[in-house]
Amino acid sequence: MAFSKKQKTKMISDYEIWLGKSQAVFMLEYKKMTMKDIDALRAKVRETGSEAHIVKNTLMKLAMTNAGYKDIVKTEGTLLVGFAYSDAPALAKVFADASKNSEIFKLRGGFLDKQPLSMEQVKALADLPPLPVMRATLLGVLQAPASKLVRTLAEPARSLAAVVKAYSDQGAPQAA
To answer: CB of 60 within 8 A of CB of 15?
Structure first.
């Protein structure tokens, strides 16, 4: 299907908007994909707060060049491009899982903050824990020294209270 110059310009501007809003961009090559496959993958992508679009390769290359992307991944075959707006590892995990468990999808690579990523790097990014888990881990690391300090400062008072309680418990039976 041929597109008019006006339609192509609109598509390029859409691609540039998506690229501008996204933290990361991941690419999947697909073959013999049905609407059921597309809908299932897009539903998983939406759960991560991201979007996935089927793109025209040459127009996507132009949009990426205009948006300042360097070392553009080879865009051969039919591509499904995912745009991660908030949680890049979550989208990378969805794309890596789709390519691992299927003959339909093949991971092509991507970009993180406009820096190119190979397939292996995308898979490594997918292996990172989700953002809430990372935040909880970081919070635990930051709170550990403060908790230890509070326990250290409270220990002498706790020990003194234990001695006084033991002394009072020892004295109570003698008085009776």
So the answer is: yes
